[in-house]
Amino acid sequence: MAKAKKTTESLEKQLFKAADKLRNNIDAAEYKHVVLGLIFLKYISDSFSELYNQLIEDGFDAEDRDEYLAENVFYVPKEARWDFLLANAKSPEIGVLLDTAMDTIESENSQLKGVLPKVYAKENLDKAALGGLLDIIGNIALGDTASKSADVLGHVFEYFLGEFALKEGQKGGQFYTPKSVVTLLVEMLEPYKGRVMDPCCGSGGMFVQSEKFVEEHQGKITDISIYGQESNQTTWRLCKMNLSIRGIDSSMVKWNTEGSFLKNELKDARVDYILANPPFNVSDWSGELLAEDGRWKYGTPPPGNANYAWLQHFLFHLAPQGRAGVVLSKGALTTTSNGEDLLRKNMVDAGTVECIVNLPEKLFLNTGIPACLWFLRKEGSSTARPNEVLFIDARDKGHLVSRKLRDFSEEDIASISEVYHKWRKGDDSYEDVAGFCKSATIEEVKELDYVLTPGRYVGLAEEEDDFNFEERFGELKTKLDSMIEKESKLNTRISSSLSKILYGHE
Fold it and tell me: 344 - beta bridge partners?
């Protein structure tokens, strides 16, 4: 088993090294779609070819599109099949042929319409490197039965998404949530059955892990339905491809440029689970246009920060017994800016805040801002602990995989999720553990002015690394700007008064 893992890792790295040669004349964002588009094409071509050969062997019409529809396999037209493209890999027209292939696949498979990249004919793309990448990808199986069983493509896709996020820095991290963080959310929420939503779904990692969770626990994939929205079109395309290669229905994953706040594509959906990693501390979310929105049950979020808009958006979409697991900036646990502390108070008093998990630093590729997990429940939902909030301080969990990046082990994830499950079920075996977890009453939270930092409750003093310069600087700058504005108005008044006084003495 260990040997197989080593081979897979070697394959992933080999592919990425080859793909990296394409990056000379194109930016990282474009390069990402060039490479992942080819991998997707190889996958569906492998899957098609296997069924094609089987149909011929069994004496059926291998060009009958209905045969592929019946087996949930994408039909691939002749000019888009991998053997045809590979035969023309050294042709100067390979870029045009690949764009044509993507067009024909979309025309034959409606769920892929508008999803696949058509960027291969661009002049800035090195055709020799492109042909070389086709050769390398052509040597590996991605979509046949054996490869599907081993989830070779899933491993490759996840590896590439992570590497692209690393190379793109903050921008790349927008579409990628670290797998261990997603796994922790999924293990805590346990979405065995029902509707799963991510209103800022990125490349679809939350959905993929939810499906994997069901499979690993002998559930039925058909018992899960997914709902998603994404404002970045290229990221939405990544999501659609990511779900398609795993046979996950993405028909309810929507895109528009306005985003979930201004144009909620799923406004009528009430779901059983929400898993989300919204962008932290967004200041330009058009809050001034939505002051009277019906989603703000616990108070109007400030126009300068979307954190509490996201939290209330999630609560709005929960079914009566629904729950949400959300990644958020840790500043939201303590902020008193622009009335956010009142929103937090209202949510706690209403019983919507179920659990807070303090995360260690360096988990995320795209930000150094300290993060935490919020677990929310619908107001009025039945629960074993209606007047309590569970606080978990997981800052000492995880291990460094590089100087700048930390990861959770399976043991870390199990230790956090097990405590949560015992607590939530009202299990008598649950116990507060000093320095790690504490079940606090809402009255105790009130006594601490509704500050939700787990360290305040579990018995650890706030550590120095809790101080985040970026967040603190932003808060201070906002206050400074306000003071400068007041000073300017005051100076104007003083100048006017002095003029009147001077004029009166003339």
Answer: none
